[in-house]
Amino acid sequence: MLKCGIIGLPLCGKSTVFNVATNAGAEVKPYAGGKTDPNRAIVSVPDSRFDSLARLYEPKKTTPATVEFVDLAGLSRNAGKGEGLGNSFLSFVAESDALVHVVRLFENAEVPHPEDTIDPVRDWNIVEMELIFRDLGVIEARLSRILAKKKTGAAEECEKELLERCQACLLEERPLREMSLSAEELRVLSGFSFVTLKPELLVANVDETQTDDALPSFAALKELAGEKGIQLIRVYGRMEMELAELSREEQTEFMDELGLVEPGRNRLVSGAYALLGLISFFTTGKDEVKAWTLLKGKTAVDAAGAIHSDLARGFIRAQVVSYDDFMANDQSLPKCREKGVLRLEGKDYIVADGDMIEIRFNV
Questions:
Q1: What is the pTM of this model?
Q2: pLDDT digits (tens, 9 = 90+) for 268-309
């Protein structure tokens, strides 16, 4: 299962944001020097299409798409002051598929900021630079081993050239995700688990008084996100964590006061799901309605394999209709067939988000 690692400076509200995303009720602990294991939770991806199909089919079982969140521990309180992030933190980051970077905007005299002042752009840069230092260390170690060899093959020469390009990018204080890399180059780099190559979601952790987009600290962070091409979402961390304990009516009332269309959890989980490059396709019936997770750009035979390896091995055709077409045609497969929107697709068909699929196979 793909997972998102939640990172950030101490006391920025990582565990609070983790609880907003997961409703896990994990204890929000004081900073413990990076010696605690991370909180983990697998959460359902909010999807109104899945909910509609479940209501329509009334199956015995419903299985939504899921994603794992990990509240990463181990960030040094003195990151940015020469102490570094610590091996524990970096190993957890390397295991993540995407990063949810929490930056503190809220003021709280009882929870002093480790840098003494609120400056989200500075805080983002502190963590980003430590991640860059980590990747530079990995590259330097590998290049040293290659250069120590008396003779290198063509593959190692290509790897050396690619790593030197990556090194130059990092020395410019730019993460590797900003490079234009081919699919083959990404394959070569995959074994290094470069942390700055991972996609990143930026979360502004605010309080209920910070609703104005013109708030200087938020405006500065928004400008940074735009420059870096990073998605930014605002989460009312502490308040939205407590909101989950209220009735639906009370939740709606509070959200209306803040001008929120959906809960922070939905924004976080949906944003992380998209960040991972994931789409959902559906299988339906009276026994089960299930949302399956697939990487964007994958084919019908990949979808069959996600369901079961036998389906991929014996794949014949995929019967496909988009959720939107299905709903627009009276939620009727016969009518979809009559209108020509229920199709038989081959193994090379690129699955679209929201496809309803039935695999035809023979093994």
A1: 0.86
A2: 999 999 999 999 999 999 999 999 999 999 999 999 999 999
Q: Which residues pair with 360 in a beta bridge?
A: 317
Q: Rounded distance, CA 177 to CA 172, Å?
A: 13
State phi, psi for 362 to the nearest 5 degrees.
-150, 115
Show Cβ contacts of residue 331 under 8 Å, excluding neighbours closer than 6 positions.
Answer: 56
> Which of helix, strand or coil describes residue 67?
strand
282/358 Cα distance (integer angstroms) = 9
Amino acid, single-letter form, for residue 7: I
First to last CA, the chain: 27
311: tokens are 């389906």
Phi, psi of 291 (to 5 degrees): -100, 120
**Of 5, 11, 10, 68, whose CA–CA distance to 238 is shortest?**
11
For residue 271, what are its two tokens? 């944003």
How far is CA 242 from its chain centroid? 23
Domains of the chain: 3-275 (3.40.50.300), 297-361 (3.10.20.30)
Residue 245 CA: distances (Å) to CA of 159, 240, 249, 250: 52, 9, 12, 10
